[in-house]
Amino acid sequence: MARAPGTGYEVTARLRNPVGYYWTESHGGVYPALARLVDVGWVRVKALPGPGPHDKKVYTATAAGRRALGAWAAQPPADPPPRDELVLKVSSIWASRPARAGAMLLAEADRWEAQRREYAGIVARLRAQELAPGTPTWCALQTAQRGRDFARGRRDWCRSVAAGLPTIDPLASGARTS
Amino acid sequence: MARAPGTGYEVTARLRNPVGYYWTESHGGVYPALARLVDVGWVRVKALPGPGPHDKKVYTATAAGRRALGAWAAQPPADPPPRDELVLKVSSIWASRPARAGAMLLAEADRWEAQRREYAGIVARLRAQELAPGTPTWCALQTAQRGRDFARGRRDWCRSVAAGLPTIDPLASGARTS
DNA sequence: GCTGACTATGTCATCGCTGACATAGTTGAG
DNA sequence: CTCAACTATGTCAGCGATGACATAGTCAGC
User: Residue B25: exposed, middle, or buried by beta-carbon count in 10 A (0-12, 13-18, 19+)?
Assistant: First the structure.
């Protein structure tokens, strides 16, 4: 809302499209969260007659809200539990049939290549705009660049692990090593 | 347990040390999970008298358990909601004072540099072992390499964003651009 | 004229995770 | 001798997230 006012629905959509790659928020969680923000005075709300049984509500960040956002963003993140399922799976693929594991990894590599291309497109589009440092769109460029590099790294890693997988199953052939 | 039998406590410790960088499991969740694994027949349990009011229980993977692990590892991951707090923060640092944001980012860069060094050490140690592809330790090498590359990318990204931050606050100076 | 997609707000049961609490023997350092 | 740290297993309240359910107007395409 600090970037632009919007309804809960519209904010949810924004949270899906560019933000969705590094943060998720379920539909059900948005409306209570919005109510809390109004309670603490970080956003203002204006109700308009809307479709459905409820009013349409446009939320706008207050000055205090923008200050709070800035303070939060400059605070170091609480070191997060990453929980990367793919890495966990790779740490256990010694128990899998190499052919199946390799196929999975190459499919993942393709997924990440597609993701990389999408990010690269966003980066190209934003870079064409001659952005001043420190503007919201410049920030979006930074995150898109990180997304692109992350996807590239992941793609390469998937391919490299797949390429290193044994052609003959070491478990089946009885050559059990540490 | 498929790698080596162990007690719940010992498995939790293993989950902290090399695995903790890409997966977490709280102490409270381990014991119910273990009981479920016994229920479905993927691990066997042997009770021994131990310290404290409960028996010490050594868990061992069954053949069915190893098969299930292999099948799970070769299955593509359910595309995960990544939830990267640092990236989310960077997408909002336009609302922060650049000096504060820059300090935070450089501190994060140092954290990731430390992490990178730790991973690099693990990689070096494992690489010295002449690992056969497809063994459990080879898998550990693959995940450590990914961890190292991820940490390096993150370190560089933090530094690059910090370097690009404006020296004069664009919000305070009134030059509000898209 | 009908159907499906989109806009729009909300509730709620359920589920899994987290962190604290509870208990108790062993071992090593000061 | 004492205290802290480690081994070891378990329970449980609370919290937040998820996904389904509920409702209803508009608009484009067939």
Answer: middle
